[in-house]
Amino acid sequence: MTMTPPIEQITARKVDRDEVFLEYTKSICPVCKTVIDAEVNVKDNKVFLRKRCREHGKFEALLYSDAEMYFASMKYNKPGTYPLETQTEVKDGCPLDCGLCPEHKQHACLGIIEVNSNCNLDCPICFADSGHQPDGFSLTHEQVETGLDAFVRSEGEPEVVMFSGGEPTIHPHILDFIKMAQDKGVHMVTLNTNGIRLAHDRKFVADLAELKPVIYMQFDGFDEKTHVEIRGRDLRAAKQKALDNCAEFGLGVSLVAAIEKDLNQHEMGEILRFGVKHPAVRSVAFQPVTHSGRHITFDPMARLTNADIIHGLVDQIPEWFKLSDFVPVPCCFPTCRSITYLLVDGDNVVPIPRLVDVDNYLDYVSNRVMPDMSVRGALEKLWSASAVPGTDGNTTSQLECATCGIDLPEALKSIADKSFMVVIQDFQDPYTLNVKALMKCCVEEITPDGRLIPFCAYNSVGYREQVREQLSGVAIPTIVPNAGELQPVLMTTKYGSKTFGNGDGRGEANGGAHVPADATNVGKTLR
Amino acid sequence: MSPAGPAGQGPPSASVGEVRSTRVPADEAKACCARSYQSDVVALILGESYHPGGLELTRRLARTLDLRAGQKVLDIASGPGATAFLLASEFGATVEGVDLGDIAVAKANATAAERGISERVHFTVGDAERLPIDDASVDAVVCECALCTFPDKPTAVAEMARVLRPGGRIGITDVALDPARLDSELASLAGWVACLADARPLDEYCDLLADAGLRVTLTEDHDDGLARMIDQIDARLVAFKMAGVAALEAIDFEQARRRVALAGQAVADGIAGYKLLVAEKAQTSS
Fold first, then answer.
1. Residue A387 lies in a domain
2. Minimum Cα–Cα distance from A320: chain B residue
3. Which of A51, A495, B237, B264 could form a disulfide with A38 if both were Cys (CB 3.0 to 4.6 A apart)?
4. Burial class of residue A178 (count of CB atoms within 10 Å of its CB; 0-12, 13-18, 19+)
5. Is the ipTM of this complex over 0.85?
């Protein structure tokens, strides 16, 4: 029943879109994890990812809150390196073949081994969904060795292995694991911890000091409210004690701050100032809270991104920073991580990018004559996911190299050990997952069955649930982000995270009846 | 000061803390400036920071000149030769560099030999106001961060026009400054650093080029490059202080930093900036 209205009655006018269509990519439905097409758009100088699941509707999330910075970062996209070996075959396409599959664009700069699911805290925010849980897993020597061997076969001489959890310091064999990694030729071992055992068990700290891993310690701020909302307990005294113990026994520490919007955003500057002053601390990593696993309710359109962290630091410590001091990391996808280094001496603070024209060396798009390839090489190691700061870390010698190749006097080499690293890292979640960036991820979860799964795929696509189920023998539901808009359909799992629908442990799509077939989409789920 | 000092010694060289009298005869100023640009402390603090905007701005300049392989380019105030080497290696030009500093010229020629491009890049000692170059003999002239230092700008620009072939282009990047709005401490440093003291507003540079019979075809703001260079100089000052670099003892550290900050403020306030200008010589020589 169509009737064409008379011409004079047409009053509608064509309207321009209010966004710039930028990229076409793939993502997943944050609810059923089905792989679906996605588009990236720019609106009001912000970058958004939008996608539509046939079953669960349209989703949109903020990827980067400063479009100019997003564009500017593209030139830092270093060509990837083939690993010596891949672990899987290409079958269903990214991100269902992890990993690493032969189509992955980068080798692993950093491998993570989660040695347990148990934790001595029950944080409201935990991407690993860990806690005081009786039905978790705890890796054996053999399982850790299988993973490490796979990593060594893939990397030759791996740069960095991080032991994580759960809470790795409560694993009875954690010291053995650190030693095992070192014995297998891993250059640097880091230990990711909440610091509680380091605060209370001086013998353990002394034992660690024999092995000298670099400690990555959660450190989210100074307000009681911050501690309670992120960690569930006021841990201020324990953190201080743990850091002082590390200093006493000579362990270098990187503080890792999970930053949540409107909670501890205002504490970033104070955290950094504290870190710079504390004798054990050689680095601070700021991470917008990852909305995978367990977390507090959030708005995907108003989440924090790397750009917010960088702007926040510049606003909170204007006497130290300008936006240009933070340089995207070339080894992974450059929007995922930015780094700067500071030279610190008392009240004097100098960002290294003002001394060395990092831009000139790390521009991979313009094909240029490089003044000094050794300087580029050193800067690539500094601006890398494998950079570990501190006198026992690998950055000092690289800083010396970076400064020796240019016009800085010899004497400056002597202060390379005054360097302090600042890292800004945004992990993808089921809302923001962008296969374009994921394919170049260089931070991998090493699984006990010998796979290397990109960290954000592990947390978002369903691998974490799959691996935990295998290891613990307990059915694990598909974890869905605790987004405000999903509240009506979310159920709480026994670990505190959220799942969808009837909570049968399988999510909608893998329930069997509703796998959405799509002409352009893969139409499959991992699980 | 230097009519043809090494390129790259932009206004922030003001900030190292040397103080010179305001009014000195031009010849004396030239000599002392050439000396100061070759002195260790200035070289140390400026490093190879070159000129505001760095190599990226030099590339931009080359593109605006539409430089092509085989063309002959004169680089006035060529300094250590960074501009000349870039134009030769990335744009295929043959470059003659002229600089008043004999040490800089010798070093630049040595670098050219090291790089094996002496046939295409050569440096000569010479005065920008009396260029040792034939009339109408070059396809393009570049002059980066140096015109501001020339005491007799009309003569220097006339010399550029003289050596350029009809239809050739001149590309200049330089400090632009509104002296009337300059902070009193910075203003009192006039002579301390010629590029700040004798830098002109953009329209005066345009007039200078027009008066030499050239047609200005393009002007661009590159003030960010100047701000970044000033940041870099401040960073180097502080880093060297941390490292206990001995040469720094010769200058008043706090005063130097304060002046760097003032220079930075002048850029932020739009009183000082960095500009790119392109001018063309008429096809038929007048």
1. no
2. B235
3. A51
4. buried
5. no
